[in-house]
């Protein structure tokens, strides 16, 4: 009921982009801002949950103070959510091929378990305040934005109104939609083109690798049996110490210069042949993307602008809106259907819905 009310409100409040841009925290000019998918709006929760963004920002500030690595986990979670089936919180469902479900989990897609826990925590905090009106997909999107901001990156507004899927993606779907770290630029560009993301978007979004870590298994194909000729020698020597075998369970930072800061140093790494994955380094090797890498390496504002554009586009991929999907009361499980619901009513509907 509350969610229907929220979507009604959002339809009534048609807010011009100008309003948002004039307030100054968006780095992107109006002409560059991608048009909003119908059903999403910057003021979606203004009435139904006005404190939503503050609750999330405040909580994440505390969480990141004890472990800044969680920021990377949350940013990557949103990427995986959006690329597989759309930004619909499908990644959060138990049993999802890229989610925490043990049965179907693919080891090479391992996302930090703590990221899932934090989303559930945020969901609970928001639900206590507003009821079950904010979707898990929107919480994931705003957590990714805050991960960027609280790691020193740019602030930007996120449009809301995404709804949560009723089903999770299959393992095949997950593998088909997430590019592998062994991809070259051609693979990356064609993979992202299927999502209407441009060459510039591809380079800018890869800049998400300015924070976080990778496991040896994601890059040891560049070390053994023969060393990738586009890799700096000292960098390679050190990686071989961290990963003495291809199957080592060790991890290393994605950005060798400033591993926990959301800045443009990732592109400086690439120019110095210190990109970790093939998909990273080849952006500098390939002459279709090299000049974009260089332009971001020398101009952080330019990177920020294009990263925001990429994130806004990515954040609108195949979203469910209006009456599609549902607002999950628990991010890791579908809402009980009416028949299951009647059996739990006696246990207390209030507890279930979080009111
Ligand atoms: C362009 C294609 C991409 C490829 C091939 C790729 C691949 C990977 C791989 C293999 C890992 C490390 C997994 C591991 O070994 O533990 C990783 C980590 C990460 N990726 Fe990507 N990624 C891509 C795009 C993105 C995008 C678009 C974002 C967000 C904007 C992103 C954000 C991250 C972050 C933050 C981490 C670190 C996660 C952590 O520390 O827990 N990636 N990525
Ligand atoms: C919605 O809330 C945002 C953030 O508090 C504010 O900037 C904006 O003016 C509000 N819009 C409306 C239509 O109330
Ligand atoms: C970041 O953006 C939010 C709205 O999206 C705004 O409330 C906040 O004041 C901004 N913070 C900074 C530091 O610009
Ligand atoms: C998944 O993909 C594999 C190989 O591409 C195929 O053999 C298998 O039938 C697919 N499974 C499903 C459930 O589609
Ligand atoms: C995961 O591993 C499988 C087989 O080991 C490989 O085919 C696939 O490309 C990998 N996917 C990613 C996203 O790394
Ligand atoms: C990129 O990799 C694919 C295989 O994934 C290969 O077929 C293609 O030739 C490569 N392209 C370039 C330009 O190296
Ligand atoms: C890409 O754009 C086309 C044309 O606007 C649209 O039909 C298609 O659904 C879009 N694809 C995705 C994945 O958003
Ligand atoms: C993990 O990395 C350290 C150096 O960073 C190395 O000494 C150790 O052998 C590695 N362990 C494994 C299991 O690969
Ligand atoms: C890793 O590979 C090495 C050499 O192939 C092997 O001796 C070792 O048992 C493997 N370790 C694991 C954890 O699989
Ligand atoms: C990229 O390099 C290829 C082969 O060296 C060349 O044919 C092509 O013109 C170059 N393209 C650009 C945009 O520089
Ligand atoms: C860096 O990029 C910003 C944003 O596009 C632009 O306004 C600025 O002029 C650029 N700075 C330099 C030194 O080129
Ligand atoms: C959410 O759903 C999962 C999976 O069904 C369950 O394990 C967990 O206990 C539920 N959490 C809450 C708070 O209801």
What this model shows, in words?
This protein is an all-alpha fold and 355 residues long. 47% of the residues lie in helices and 2% in strands. The protein is built from 15 helices and 2 strands. It has a two-stranded antiparallel ribbon with strand order 1-2. The longest helix is centred in the middle third of the chain and has 18 residues. The protein is globular, with a radius of gyration of 20 Å. It starts with a helix and ends with a helix. Bound molecules: protoporphyrin IX containing FE and 2-acetamido-2-deoxy-beta-D-glucopyranose (NAG) (11 copies). It is found in: Secreted. This is Peroxidase. Its EC number is 1.11.1.7. One of its GO terms (molecular function) is heme binding. Its cofactor is heme b; Ca(2+).
């Amino acid at each position: 009921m509350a969610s229907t009310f929220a979507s009604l409100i959002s339809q009534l409040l048609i807010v011009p982009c100008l309003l948002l841009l004039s307030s100054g925290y968006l780095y992107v000019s109006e002409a560059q801002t991608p048009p909003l998918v119908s059903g999403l709006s910057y003021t979606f929760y203004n009435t139904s949950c006005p404190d939503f963004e503050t609750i999330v920002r405040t909580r994440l500030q505390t969480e990141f103070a004890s472990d800044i690595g969680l920021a990377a986990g949350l940013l990557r979670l949103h990427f995986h959510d959006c690329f597989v089936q759309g930004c619909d919180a499908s990644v959060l469902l138990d049993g999802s091929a890229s989610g925490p479900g043990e049965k179907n989990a693919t080891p090479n897609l391992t996302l930090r378990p703590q990221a899932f826990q934090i989303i559930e925590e945020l969901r609970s905090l928001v639900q206590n305040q507003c009821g079950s009106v904010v979707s898990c997909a929107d919480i994931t999107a705003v957590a990714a934005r805050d991960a960027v901001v609280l790691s020193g990156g740019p602030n930007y507004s996120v449009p809301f109104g995404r709804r949560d899927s009723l089903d999770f993606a299959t393992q095949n779907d997950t593998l088909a939609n997430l590019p592998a770290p062994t991809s070259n630029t051609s693979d990356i560009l064609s993979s992202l083109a299927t999502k209407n993301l441009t060459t510039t978007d591809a380079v800018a979004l890869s800049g998400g690798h300015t924070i976080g870590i990778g496991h040896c298994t994601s890059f040891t194909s560049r070390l053994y049996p023969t060393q990738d000729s586009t890799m700096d020698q000292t960098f390679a020597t050190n990686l071989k110490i961290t990963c003495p075998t291809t199957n080592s369970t060790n991890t290393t930072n994605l950005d060798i210069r400033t591993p926990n800061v959301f800045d443009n140093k990732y592109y400086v790494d690439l120019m110095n042949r210190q990109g970790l994955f093939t998909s990273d380094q080849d952006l500098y090797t390939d002459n279709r993307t090299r000049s974009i890498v260089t332009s971001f390496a020398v101009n952080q504002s330019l990177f920020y602008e294009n990263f925001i554009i990429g994130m806004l586009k990515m954040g609108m991929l195949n979203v469910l809106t209006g009456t599609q999907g549902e607002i999950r009361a628990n991010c890791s499980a579908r809402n009980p259907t009416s028949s299951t619901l009647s059996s739990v009513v006696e246990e207390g509907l209030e507890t279930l819905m979080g009111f």
